[in-house]
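Justification of resources, computational component.

The compute hours requested in this renewal are based largely on the per-chain cost of generating structure records like the one below. Each record pairs the submitted sequence with a full structure-token output. That output is archived, and it is also reused by downstream analysis tasks.
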Amino acid sequence: MKLHAFLMCIMNYLLLTNQEEQKSEVKQTSWSSPDNNTYAYPDDYDVATACESHVPEFNSLALLVIYSIVFVFSLLGNSLVVFVVCSMSKGRASTDIYLMHLALADLLFCFTLPFWAVESHYGWIFGTLPCKFISSFQEASVYSGVFLLACISVDRYFAIVRATRVLSSRHLLVKGICAVVWLVSGFLSIPVAVQREDIILPGLDQPICYENLTGESSDQWRVGLRVLRHTLGFFLPLVVMAFCYGWTVVTLFSMRSQQKHKAMRVILAVVLAFIFCWLPYNVTVLIDTLFRGGSLEETCDIRYTVEALLEVTKIIAFLHCMVNPVLYAFIGEKFRNELLTALYKQGIISKKLWVSYRKGSAASVLSVRSRNTSISV
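The structure output for this chain reads:
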């Protein structure tokens, strides 16, 4: 929460700080924005009403720094999560496997950030082929992340509400589900990989990595792609999570089990963090999609506001890839114990430090934990 509050405080610095204010004329057929989007208008659009407004611009150097910081912290944090889960010699739960794949999805996402950081300041200088690969990697990582969160919610629902014991024999099934998630995510990222190219849009003096669409169906393609993202990539999994966690929370309150309450703390925190980071961006993109499809009537002031919100909410969404490890570290007691054990086995910390911490948390460590718990406990 403090991180997002800090981000909102520096938005005033990002807006119109290192660049001259520019005016953008909207022609009869299209208007290009620094957000790398081209907005097509109907043929009967009155040119007299064309917007001539200041396009919201951000300090490109500040964006480069922000993306670079997010990349470093996400790389370190998620690599640590993968390291801890892989170091578990026993007691690895199904949720641990899901969370490890979620960390891998965040790692894949963060690997794309340096490229977008460079693009924000210098333009896309890497060519068309890297543009296709990087865009598809980012698309697949977003899909896989939300799908894995939905899988975790279903897993917790059966483990707690249906009281289904999560046995080690199910680990093969969980790994199979994760494999299916990655395959489906990769398939859904194909349209982006096919259409993305290194191009220069009208009104821009630098190349960008963007969909190269022409013809009358170009705007319909973008709207259709966005509807797919909204439906499969956010709102449908969100409905699944809301249903599963709704029943799970009700069941936990009725059971009065402090142990299982702890077992849900970080899982719910992870979901809430995902919603907090991605919901504003998805809602803003949805509003922009409705404007594109002609379902809502827009004005120049509205267009300006939507463009500014798209940039701000996109930065907040990108922050999500480094949030989960922070939640594990500060709330997940079992994660901290497993981390220290792994560091001790690798000879990174002394036995004295490891034993002293273990004694300090002996009551929780030595308590009987079912295999329904996870690294988030």
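Strands lie at 23-25, 30-33, 37-40, 52-54, 196-199, 208-211. Residues 60-365 form a domain with the Rhopdopsin 7-helix transmembrane proteins fold (CATH 1.20.1070.10).
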